[in-house]
Structure formats: structure tokens, C-alpha cells
Design goal:
six-stranded antiparallel sheet, about 25% helix, five-stranded parallel sheet, alpha/beta, about 350 residues, 7 helices
């Protein structure tokens, strides 16, 4: 807490001359998490049953804060934290919007302060997420990296109660996420938001996981997140679509990586068109591949499809193997589908 209430709800501020207690809270938190057992808060951590440090490496200063009230408060935290904990990476906020004059102003100011990570939040219509698949291609390298700390496609509008977790929303988020994977030197972390909603007592919709008092189900968005989280490469490799380095050519959104541990290429393909397509895939540089690959597929022909308490797996992943004859091969992808291909190679 940087001494500012949620600006989405109010403009309540702690006066600048009353910030010391907030800064001390941050210092105490770091000492509790990382300090030696001989320190006051490290001793308290030990008394609570955890003598080993937690090795906290990042600290966010504020959440969805912006403007000329936030920056001087951020400066006070920077001046107190950096000399004492130079190894700690600070996360700064740019506010609610992922674009516009205030966004540009905040990004410029955070980069000038050498904030290690900038927290971007994006709630918008599915069309916006498709259009932003190349968003991070032209971000400057070697300055501040990005944490896409909240994002989620909205069917009706931002914070509208009639938003729904449709397959269209989930598929557009998958397209957006291939842009993260194409730019891992810019986008360090991401998190869909919000996470949980009770069907009879929710604050916000959509949510990743819904439940009542007895049952729980994952949304199509959940299965997209699962497919990406369980199939992360170690090293990104470049991808072209019909010779273009731009993502989204011909309604195809693609990212690729190598998993050093398993010795596999992981290729993610989002087909945002309704037609089943046969793709010619060329793994340039691979001398040899296995006899078969594995495909994890999330697909549905109806963009309005949703899961529910009584139909929890209406939209969910399937897994199959497919034969391979070499590093160049044809592969079919269903309309409106996310396809994760894992291929062993040399």
C-alpha cells in the first residue's frame, strides 16, 4: 500500500507527511520474508514456524494507481527501498487503462525511474485482444519489463454484470498470450483476473473458476490458461506465418519454444477462423523428429459456448498423438481452436 486508496473507487490519499508508516510496513514485510533469524521480524517468522527465508524477489508499489499523486509517493518508496534492498525488483503501476495519454505518461515516468517491472491491466472486448497480439513486438528492450498483472476479455463491457466466460473470450486471450511468448524479453509474467467467483455471491464477472457450495468448474478461459501454463518452453524460437513475422496473419496466432528438459519443440497455434485448416509446418533447423507428436487441443465450433456447474467439461482439452515423417509435415487444426503441439527433435 503506497498510501492511496483504490482510485477506481475513490481518491482518498494519505498525506505525504504521513507516508512513513506505509514505508515502514514495506520494510517490515521484506525483513519478515527475507531477514535473518537474528533480525526482529526474522525472529518472528521463526517463531511462527518458518525459519528459512521466503526469498521474496519482487515488490509491487500500489495497485492500479496512476497520475501525479502516485509518482511522488512511489519516489518515497524507491528512495527507502533501493539503498537497503538493491536486489529487490520493484513493480510499478500504470493504472487501469492499457493505452491512451495517461498510460503513455505513466510508462514514460516509470521507465525514467528505472522501475524493473511495469504492471499493465487490460480488460476489453475479444476483438481488442486479437488486435494486440503484436503489442509487445516494438516495446524497447533492456529497460522495464512487463507484468500483465490483470487481463480478461469482456463480452458486454468492463465491469458489466452480464459478462460471460465464452469460448470467444478464451480464444482471443489465447491469441493475446502467443504475443507474450513471442516477446519473453519484454513480458516476464502474466495473470488472468479475477480468479474465483461464487455463483450466488460474486463481485465481478467474468471469473476464471466458478463454484457453488458443493461443485466447482473451470471456464474455457481456465483451460486456455492451463494449456499455456503446462506447456511453457525454456527458450523462445522465432516463427513466421506465410513468410511474415507478424502474428495473426490469416487468422493464425502462433508462438513456439524449446523445452530443454524434455527435448521438445512446443508450438502453439490459435485458429481464429471457423474453418478447419491443413497447415504446412516446417521446423527449420531440426535434423530429426520423433515418430509421433502430441497435440493438446481446446476447440469448439460455437464461440458462445460456455461451461457450467452441470456441464463443466463442455469446452475442455483433448489430447491425441499424430504421426510424423520428418521436420516438415502437414497438420490439421479445427476451426476456433487452440492447438499445443509437442514434438521431440534433434
Amino acid at each position: 500500500n503506497c498510501g492511496m486508496a483504490c482510485q477506481f473507487n475513490s481518491n482518498e490519499l494519505a498525506p505525504m507527511d504521513q507516508l512513513d508508516s506505509y514505508i515502514q510496513d514495506a520494510l517490515d514485510l521484506i525483513e519478515f520474508a527475507n531477514g535473518p533469524v537474528t533480525s526482529p521480524w526474522g525472529k518472528r517468522r521463526t517463531e511462527l514456524g518458518h525459519p528459512a527465508p521466503f526469498n521474496v524477489r519482487m515488490l509491487g508499489i500500489g495497485n492500479e494507481q496512476w497520475g501525479t499523486n502516485y509518482l511522488p509517493r512511489l519516489d518515497r518508496f524507491i528512495s527507502a527501498l533501493r539503498p537497503r534492498y538493491p536486489e529487490l525488483r520493484l513493480i510499478g503501476s500504470v493504472g487501469l487503462e492499457p493505452a491512451g495519454p495517461m498510460f503513455d505518461f505513466m510508462v514514460r515516468n516509470l521507465r525514467e525511474r528505472k522501475i524493473e517491472i511495469i504492471d499493465e491491466h487490460s480488460y476489453n472486448a475479444p476483438a481488442w485482444f486479437y488486435a494486440q497480439a503484436n503489442r509487445y513486438n516494438d516495446y524497447p528492450r533492456g529497460i522495464s519489463r512487463v507484468f500483465v498483472g490483470e487481463y480478461g476479455a469482456q463480452t458486454a463491457g468492463i465491469a458489466r454484470p452480464d459478462n460471460r466466460n465464452t469460448w470467444e473470450c478464451a480464444l482471443s486471450e489465447a491469441a493475446f498470450m502467443t504475443g507474450f511468448e513471442r516477446n519473453p524479453d519484454v513480458v516476464e509474467m502474466s495473470a488472468y483476473a479475477p480468479l474465483f467467483g461464487h455463483t450466488d455471491a460474486w463481485q465481478w464477472t467474468p471469473n476464471l473458476i466458478w463454484f457453488d457450495n458443493l461443485r466447482v468448474y473451470g471456464t474455457p478461459n481456465y483451460y486456455v490458461q492451463q494449456a499455456f501454463a503446462r506447456n511453457r518452453g525454456t527458450t523462445a524460437v522465432p516463427v513466421t506465418i506465410d513468410g511474415s513475422t507478424r502474428n495473426g496473419e490469416n487468422n493464425l496466432y502462433v508462438s513456439a519454444g524449446i523445452d530443454d528438459a524434455s527435448g521438445e519443440v512446443i508450438l502453439k497455434i490459435v485458429n481464429a477462423s471457423s474453418a478447419t485448416r491443413t497447415l504446412q509446418i516446417d521446423l527449420l533447423g531440426a535434423r530429426k523428429v520423433g515418430l509421433e507428436g502430441r497435440a493438446i487441443v481446446v476447440a469448439h465450433p460455437d464461440l458462445n459456448a460456455m461451461n457450467g456447474l452441470d456441464t463443466p467439461l463442455h469446452v475442455c482439452p483433448t489430447t491425441a498423438v499424430f504421426p510424423l515423417s520428418g521436420p516438415s509435415f502437414e497438420h490439421g487444426v479445427a476451426g476456433y481452436s487452440l492447438n499445443v503441439l509437442r514434438i521431440a527433435y534433434k
